[in-house]
Amino acid sequence: WIQKNSIPVIGILLPSNFATYESVGLPMLIGFINMDTPSLRPSGVWDAARMRCVLMNAALKYRGKITFVLTNGALYQDRMRSLGILHGEKSLPSIAMNVAGGGATVVPLQLEKERERDDDDDDNDKARLEGEKQEMVKDSTLAIQVTQYCELFLSGRLPLWNAKKEETDGEMKKKMKKKRKTGESHSKILTKRRKKVPPMLQNGVREH
């Protein structure tokens, strides 16, 4: 009890103190954030202070049941992959559950996705950014999502992470994206060809 309550509400996970957290014997919610260079996402900058605010409500509610820590995702990308966060710094900010004793990995939660960008996106940037502003999620909503994530985990209803499914879904997305880009390129080529075709001459007697 003393050891559990001596742990900070939200600590900083380092290689030097990992064993201390592990010895507590509680599931560990890890908030992965880029502590070297804050991540810029549609809703703004993500740094350790912002992640701490988003996690705080859940950390207080589930104190004694789950330990909450922040760590530098930019340095521990291999660890992120083992917890289902597959795209390195592009996946930040994200949270994941580290289960003591090598328990089954559950799905992580990516708090805000990076906007995917194609090479020919320049013409659509303005409209895309406007759409992103409308889709931005408030930190208060993210805090609720984190609480729900913890609740699902503790009740055993959080799905297990399926590495094969993630790989298959990733390949499908790449194929669909490539197919879409190929279709758009083909459409642009046809449009250009139509513009180059001279107007048809009308048959009949020309009037003087």
Produce the secondary structure layout.
Elements: H1 2-6, E1 10-12, H2 18-24, E2 28-33, E3 39-41, E4 44-46, H3 48-61, E5 67-72, H4 77-82, E6 94-98, E7 109-110, H5 125-135, H6 139-154, H7 163-196
Task: Explain this structure.
It is a single chain. This protein is an alpha/beta fold and 208 residues long. It has 7 helices and 7 strands. The protein is globular. The chain starts with a helix and ends in a 12-residue tail after the last helix. The relative contact order is 0.13.
Q: What overall form do the CA principal axes indicate?
A: globular
Characterize the biggest β-sheet: 5 strands, mixed
Task: List the secondary-structure elements in sequence, H or E.
Answer: HEHEEEHEHEEHHH
Compute the number of helices. Answer: 7
Poorly predicted residue ranges: 119-123, 125-134, 200-208
In short:
It contains 7 helices and 7 strands; from the N terminus they run H-E-H-E-E-E-H-E-H-E-E-H-H-H. The chain has helices spanning 2-6, 18-24, 48-61, 77-82, 125-135, 139-154, 163-196; strands at 10-12, 28-33, 39-41, 44-46, 67-72, 94-98, 109-110.
Features:
five-stranded mixed beta sheet, alpha/beta, single chain, 208 residues, two-stranded antiparallel ribbon
